[in-house]
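Saturday, quiet lab. Running sequence design on the structure tokens for the scaffold JK sent over.
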């Protein structure tokens, strides 16, 4: 069922919500997972690529990357992709989506304008609700992460596992009252 049906793409779309690519002034990007050696993982890589694209094409003035350990590497990659270094701020203490939301409020408060939360399609549901609960007035902007992998039928099991893990995290966040 996972391999030969559109289950994973349907599930990823449900977690992503609307796809309207909102514009804004401040792009908030939660750091994605890193590999054991500190190299950017696939989601962190794509979050960085899409952050640079959004900045360059859609008129954002600032980018905030939040997440311990990975935000500096993501910032460096975003700068490498053509975003001015002074436009990218990082939050380096958080470990997880909830902490990212709580600890990046200070940076966001110093950066006026409409805030847009850019993250992977599968992460949007939880991240958006977590940031809202933390006091952000963000608009979600998912990008196709799990959806890209779902086009490869050999990759669908990897996507299935990612979506299952994310759904468990959503349940945990609900149980804790974080979303």
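Result came back. Writing it out in full:
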């Amino acid at each position: 069922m996972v391999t030969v049906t559109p289950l994973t793409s349907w599930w990823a779309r449900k977690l992503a919500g609307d796809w309207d690519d909102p514009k804004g002034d401040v792009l908030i990007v939660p750091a994605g997972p890193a590999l054991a050696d500190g190299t950017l993982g696939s989601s962190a890589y794509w979050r960085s690529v899409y952050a640079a694209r959004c900045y360059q094409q859609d008129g954002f003035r600032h980018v905030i990357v939040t997440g311990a350990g990975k935000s500096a590497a993501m910032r460096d990659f975003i700068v490498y992709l053509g975003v001015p270094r002074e436009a990218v701020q990082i939050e380096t203490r958080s470990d997880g989506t909830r902490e990212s939301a709580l600890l990046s409020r200070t940076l966001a408060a110093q950066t006026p304008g409409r805030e847009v939360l850019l993250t992977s399609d599968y992460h949007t549901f939880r991240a958006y609700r977590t940031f809202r609960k933390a006091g952000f007035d963000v608009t979600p902007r998912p990008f196709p992460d799990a959806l890209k992998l779902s086009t490869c039928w050999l990759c669908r099991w990897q996507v299935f596992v990612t979506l299952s893990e994310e759904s468990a995290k959503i349940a945990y966040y609900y149980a804790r009252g974080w979303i």
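Notes for JK: The chain has a mean pLDDT of 92. The helical segments are 7-16, 42-58, 71-80, 97-103, 105-109, 121-133, 146-150, 156-176. Ask whether to fix the surface positions before the next round.
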